[in-house]
Amino acid sequence: MTESSVEETPDLLPARMLNEYAYCPRLFYLEYVQGEWRDSVDTLEGHSRHKHVEKERGNLPAPGDENCYDMIHARSVYLSAERPGLIAKIDLLEGEGNFVRPVDYKHGSKPNLPEGAYEPERVQICVQGLILQENGYRCDEGVLYFIASKDRVTVTLDEALKQRTLTLLADARRVIGSGKIPPPLLDSPKCPRCSLVGICLPDEIHYLADLKDEGKLVEVRRLLPARDDALPCYVQEQGASVKG
Prior knowledge:
alpha/beta, six-stranded mixed beta sheet
């Protein structure tokens, strides 16, 4: 990043990026600010299962049309809201008249949580709801659809979730403006499945920090994100070598 770009923040932050920030600020910075990307088995599976909702279909009526009583069923809808500075691609919009409900597809199974979903996913659907509200639609809830388990989880867009989402948005903008990458998570179970773990190097960075501070050394795990589109190569011939 140049010095001038550090002082600038984006006008419109994608909903998916706020999901990433809620999940891991360092991952957010690597992807959004530094433009890093690597595929893993999770990202590839997510792309594959999202194909049937990526094509635009259906019409979204204008907000405030009190004479519209048609059922709404629109796929792959792009909307933005300038006041909060957010943009989102909504997988599915369903509703009737002026009331709409965003549906966000997730490739995994519904987690066993009282809320029905982890915070990053609830924040992402809240962003979509805030954008719809800013555009004049009535939106009081969203839905997370978990493809693997075929579960629908309704997320109420209450004030607590809205405030948490806006707080994360402000924090994310401060991180962008600082020009400093956040520290990696410490011994987190999130890291082994992260596609950018080979770039982030969380354990290696903490290990070197412990060496410098003469603290207790952390164990460096061998973290390699899984890929189901790759095959191992075994070289058994004596004296043979492999070149890239």
